[in-house]
Specification:
The complex is a heterodimer of chains A (220) and B (396). Chain A is 65% helix and 2% strand. Chain A contains 11 helices and 2 strands; from the N terminus they run H-H-H-H-H-H-H-H-H-E-E-H-H. In chain A, a hairpin with a 2-residue loop joins strand 1 and strand 2 (174-175). In chain A, helix 4 (49-72) runs antiparallel to helix 9 (138-168) and helix 5 packs across helix 8. Chain A is globular. The termini of chain A are far apart. With 396 residues, chain B is mainly alpha-helical. Chain B has a domain at 2-35. Chain B has helices at residues 2-15, 25-35, 54-83, 91-124, 131-141, 149-164, 177-188, 190-193, 219-223, 241-247, 259-271, 277-297, 301-304, 307-312, 316-323, 334-354, 361-395. In chain B, helix 4 runs antiparallel to helix 5, helix 4 runs parallel beside helix 6 and helix 12 (277-297) runs parallel beside helix 16. Chain B is globular, with a radius of gyration of 23 Å. The N and C termini of chain B lie far apart (64 Å). The chains are: A mainly alpha (220), B mainly alpha (396). Chain A binds chain B through residues 185, 187, 189-192, 194, 200, 203, 207, and chain B through 148, 150-151, 162, 166, 184, 187-192.
Chain lengths: 220, 396
Amino acid sequence: MSETAEAKVKEPLFSKKNKKLLTDPLNDDNPITIQVLGICSALAITVQVKQAFVMSVSVLAVMIFSNLIVSLIRNLIPSRVRIIVQLVIVAALVILVDQILKAFVYDVSKQLSVFVGLIITNCIIMGRLEAFALANKPFPSILDAIGNAAGYAWILIVVAIFREFFGSGKLWGFQIIPQSFYEFGYFNNGLMILPPMALITVGIIIWVQRSRNTKLIESN
Amino acid sequence: MKIFRNILDSVKPNFEKGGKLEKYYPAYDAFETFLFVPGHTANTGAHIRDAIDLKRTMVTVILAMVPALLFGIWNTGYQHFLALGQPDATFLEMITFGAIKVLPIVVVSYAVGLGVEFIFGIINGHSINEGFLVTGMLIPLCLPVGIPLWMVAVATLFAVVIGKEVFGGTGMNIINVALTARAFLFFAYPTLMSGDKVWIDTTLASGETMADGYTGATLLAQSTESATTYVNAAGVQYTDIFSSAFMGTIPGSIGETSTLAILLGAALLIYTGIASWRIILSGVVGAFVMGLIFNAFAVNPFMEVPAINQLVFGGFAFGIVFMATDPVTASQTNRGKWIYGFLIGIFSIMIRVFNPAYPEGVMLAILFMNIMAPLIDHYVIQGNISKRLKRVKVAA
């Protein structure tokens, strides 16, 4: 970990630049709403908050370790085979995460099914490896991973909250909307369970974000 | 009229630049232009002088929908009393019952939709126009009478915001707003939008009972069982199914049952040139052709339904006259309109027959073709360009 030490000497641990790595992906450079990456899993596993949370943690773990490992060996990877090297690293980590999920949260793992395996193809991870970890030191790489995974996670969880609340009247599996509402004539919104509504919810988040943050609006 | 003018003139200073309600000028403008012809003229560029404007177009379409609305009100009452086994109820009783059930849906649809239009107009500072007037009438007419009012409100809100305002408001939407509302309800609350419980209002007052053999199923739902035996709400078999469906004395969404009332509206729209006769004609031909194709194979009862009956069952007539012809979302080129209408006809009957879960195929067919319309136009225009280019080359 000599490189981390070097970074410490050269600049404070949480310099302005490093802080930016952490906070930018949360808003101005959000992987889902601004870069529009990782949409596939955002649509598929946001029906329940629990699934979305487990998925976010899995992606966070895979991202941190893959960014760290790739950053550590970045000078050893021949650039012509770098994609396959990255894939091997990510795939190994995903299998680890998958096994852990199966061991400890089996029911959620079953619901997530193929989407855990598909973390390998999550464009956010490959994108950060290519764009950041290959050219930066381990510590900033970890910060970048945490920032991007958190940016991914909060969108996922917000979308899941909306979908679970309106779609099945629950949050984290607990009934939130009381039974008396249903007796009064309230119905769960079946469209919220279907993937198109996830896309529309993400769209609304993008809309709100852009109208609050005017520098994101593209001029034409 | 003088009273309105005086009221408007007296509050006008508040809304003009520097007034305390300056922000709400679009709202004032909406009322003023709704009541009076605006006094300002365009001062740049070429423009067309025409007696018809957006407001008059919209009002004509609403007039065209009045027969369907009135018939829907009567039919709501008729079906209700039929289901109770009292077909002898007076005309006035039926109208009163229908009006009590139908008018609140219309009011909610207009209130919510216009509310959203006003809010967006004020936030964005653009003038509020009459785009919602037609949509606000179409939404109630394509819903079953048993729909709860709050669902109408939610669906209207969704349709106007997601279906129209995000694209930039009236004239910019790519899919029909009223159908967006219907599709939203259809997928969000399927139990209240399909089945055999929702089409007839069966609220019972004390002492009332259902007729023996009561059924609330629509003809489309019954068609999946048999192509020949249909029973009405009171459980009595229809004597002449085509004329019943044509006249509209059948269960169904509020405004779509009577093909006759819709044809009256269609006549007005075609006469005034507001709806494209190309779309209506090609749509009917498409549906009829698809019906004939199914008749030729006829492996299940639904395929045996005579092609001519397919045209009067369900919401096909309503959809093709009032929704497919929406000038904003339909194809713009004449050849494109033929293709667009024909494919709507084909797909409506295809979805209807192949997927019993979605007996009302016309909604999905129109939404699908709305999305395809720009593509059709693109190829029609490209085809025209290349044809003309070829002519130039031959001449040279």
